[in-house]
């Protein structure tokens, strides 16, 4: 499968200290490495939470899984929260089977991801006050 | 989808991707890194490393790692004895019930892996030799590797092992081919040097024609190139030019150095040299075609009145027809004991008169074209003019003659043909 993501930048948007990163249609070596780099860049830039939106992702191969494990590692090291959203049913099955879901929060869509993060932040804020 | 089916499909997809990666011959380290990540991704393993074992140095060079402090190109010493032990075990070694060999590896390198939990050690073995090691941490599920998992991981690792082995074999073959190419080039250089030495020896014997063989070689080269011969064939005809008079080595020195025109007896003696040259050159395996034949037939004539075999027209090898003209041109443009060199216009007149009887028209035509290009400045170099030397000035004056000769020959002569 051709990797058109190699030529296009990773789409990202930032809301407060949350970075939302949009994965490409086929998460393999080239596109996966770009996402990993972007996630690390966002963490280094102060993001406290990462949402990876898989709305365009049809397929994740083994290299893609390995790269996502690297993202999980990086997020854990930065004490950042990591949420996967808009994951199709096949990929959800794959992530569950491989145990990725033990290390990330899986939500239906981006809205739910942001809502969860807000709830957690609010809860942390009220505990602190 | 049932988990087992999904597991199977994921493994198949990984194997298919792995096959593609291993076929990537362009970049060995990239191939190994990608293959390793496929292996990690097949079970969502967070930490691990892969290294290639260098038997000569007795060390494992890490080429890719994930989630480990060790960067690539870290080298871990492994003795040959230990490598043999690991190779003999072959398959994936779970460190839960670690064999002493696997435990010893981790013990030897405990500083390198202090912060990392290694669950599996996979020796990559091809033909009973250790060629690499894969180290794997725990699965993302947090579960232990099952027997089935070990089978899958071992299968993937075997593919990676074969990939490493194939790449190294390919490199070895390429290195041998390169070595052979260098040896061949070296032999060719020695051959050329030897030929030059022979040419010098031939010319030293004849005190009146010093440099003749080398010049004939160069003129022949210029004509052949103009006729569209391949680079290799042009090199070959230059060699033939250098060696065309090698038969003179057996001709009586007094005849060769006679200050006067040869008498009948001397001519007979002298006419032995083309066949003698052929005899000298035939037993040698030349890297170019027809060198002995070019020496044998460089005194043949198109009309069949030449020697030693009286060949006619196309019976004379193409190379010999070129050497004949180059030989005559040099003879006419250098001083001889019994006559001075001819003026260029007289040389060209000789060509005009003798084309079709002594000289091949397509060769004369090519010679004239090459000469004219040099005079007009459209040739890359002025090789022919330089060979003529300072004794010929005002070469431009023969341009009209050359043009006329080309025009006459193009009208009725054969077109130049690529060799």
Describe the structure.
The complex is a heterodimer of chains A (129) and B (419). Chain A is 47% helix and 21% strand. Chain A has 129 residues and is α/β, with parallel strands linked by helices. Helix content of chain B is 55%, strand content 8%. Chain B has 16 helices and 6 strands. Chain B has helices at 3-22, 28-42, 80-89, 100-108, 147-205, 212-226, 231-243, 253-256, 264-270, 273-281, 291-296, 318-332, 344-354, 361-376, 383-388, 399-412; strands at residues 48-54, 59-66, 75-77, 93-94, 120-126, 129-136. A 6-stranded antiparallel beta sheet of chain B has the order 3-2-1-6-5-4. In chain B, strand 5 (120-126) and strand 6 form a beta hairpin. Chain B is elongated, with a radius of gyration of 37 Å. At the A-B interface, helix 2 and helix 3 of A face helix 1 and helix 2 of B.
Layout of secondary structure:
The complex is a heterodimer of chains A (129) and B (419).
Chain A: E1 11-15, E2 18-22, E3 26-27, H1 29-44, E4 49-53, E5 59-60, H2 62-77, E6 81-85, H3 89-98, E7 105-107, H4 110-128
Parallel strand pairs in A: 2-4, 3-5, 4-6, 6-7
Antiparallel strand pairs in A: 1-2
Helix pairs in contact in A: 1-2
Chain B: H1 3-22, H2 28-42, E1 48-54, E2 59-66, E3 75-77, H3 80-89, E4 93-94, H4 100-108, E5 120-126, E6 129-136, H5 147-205, H6 212-226, H7 231-243, H8 253-256, H9 264-270, H10 273-281, H11 291-296, H12 318-332, H13 344-354, H14 361-376, H15 383-388, H16 399-412
Antiparallel strand pairs in B: 1-2, 1-6, 2-3, 4-5, 5-6
Helix pairs in contact in B: 1-2, 1-5, 2-5, 6-7, 6-12, 6-14, 14-16
């Amino acid at each position: 499968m051709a990797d058109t993501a190699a030529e296009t930048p990773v789409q990202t948007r930032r809301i407060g200290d949350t970075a939302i990163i949009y994965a490409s249609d086929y998460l393999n070596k080239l596109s996966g490495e770009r996402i990993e780099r972007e996630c690390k860049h966002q963490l280094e830039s102060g993001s406290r939470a990462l949402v990876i939106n898989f709305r365009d992702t049809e397929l994740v191969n083994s290299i893609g899984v390995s790269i996502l494990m690297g993202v999980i590692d990086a997020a854990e090291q930065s004490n950042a929260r990591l949420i996967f959203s808009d994951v199709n049913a096949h990929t959800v099955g794959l992530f569950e089977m491989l145990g990725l879901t033990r290390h990330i929060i899986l939500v239906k869509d981006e809205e739910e991801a942001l809502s969860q993060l807000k709830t957690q932040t609010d809860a942390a804020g009220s505990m602190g006050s | 989808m049932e988990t087992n089916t999904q597991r199977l499909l994921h493994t198949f997809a990984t194997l298919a991707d792995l096959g593609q990666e291993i076929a990537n011959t362009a970049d060995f380290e990239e191939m190994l890194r990608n293959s390793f990540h496929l292996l990690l991704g097949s079970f969502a393993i967070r930490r691990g490393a892969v290294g290639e074992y260098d038997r000569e140095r007795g060390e494992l060079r890490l080429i890719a790692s994930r989630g480990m402090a060790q960067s690539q190109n870290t080298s871990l010493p492994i003795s040959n004895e230990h490598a043999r032990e690991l190779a003999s075990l072959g398959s994936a070694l779970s460190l839960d019930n670690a064999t002493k060999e696997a435990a010893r590896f981790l013990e030897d390198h405990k500083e390198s892996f202090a912060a990392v939990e290694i669950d599996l050690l996979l020796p990559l073995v091809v033909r009973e030799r250790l060629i690499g090691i894969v180290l794997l941490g725990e699965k993302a599920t947090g579960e232990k590797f099952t027997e089935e998992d070990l089978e899958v991981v071992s299968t993937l690792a075997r593919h990676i092992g074969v990939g490493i082995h194939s790449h190294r074999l390919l490199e070895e073959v390429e290195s041998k081919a390169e070595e052979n190419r260098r040896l061949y080039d070296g032999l060719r250089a020695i051959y050329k040097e030897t030929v030059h030495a022979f040419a010098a020896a031939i010319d030293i014997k004849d005190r009146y024609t010093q440099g003749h063989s080398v010049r004939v070689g160069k003129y022949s080269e210029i004509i052949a190139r103009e006729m569209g011969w391949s680079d290799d064939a042009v090199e070959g005809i230059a060699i033939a030019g250098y060696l065309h008079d090698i038969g003179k080595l057996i001709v009586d020195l007094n005849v060769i150095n006679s200050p006067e025109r040869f008498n009948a007896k001397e001519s007979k003696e002298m006419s032995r040299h083309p066949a003698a040259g052929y005899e000298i050159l035939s037993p040698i395996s030349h890297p170019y075609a027809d060198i002995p034949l070019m020496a044998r037939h460089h005194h043949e004539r198109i009309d069949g009145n030449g020697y030693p075999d009286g060949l006619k027209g196309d019976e004379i090898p193409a190379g010999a027809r070129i050497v004949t003209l180059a030989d005559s041109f040099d003879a006419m443009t250098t001083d001889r004991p019994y006559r001075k060199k001819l003026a260029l216009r007289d040389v060209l007149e000789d060509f005009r008169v003798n084309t079709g009887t002594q000289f091949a028209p397509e060769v004369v035509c090519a010679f004239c074209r090459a000469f004219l290009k040099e005079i007009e400045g459209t040739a890359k170099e002025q090789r022919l003019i330089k060979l003529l030397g300072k004794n010929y000035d005002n070469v431009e004056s023969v341009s009209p003659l050359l043009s006329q000769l080309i025009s006459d020959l193009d009208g009725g002569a054969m077109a130049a043909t690529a060799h």
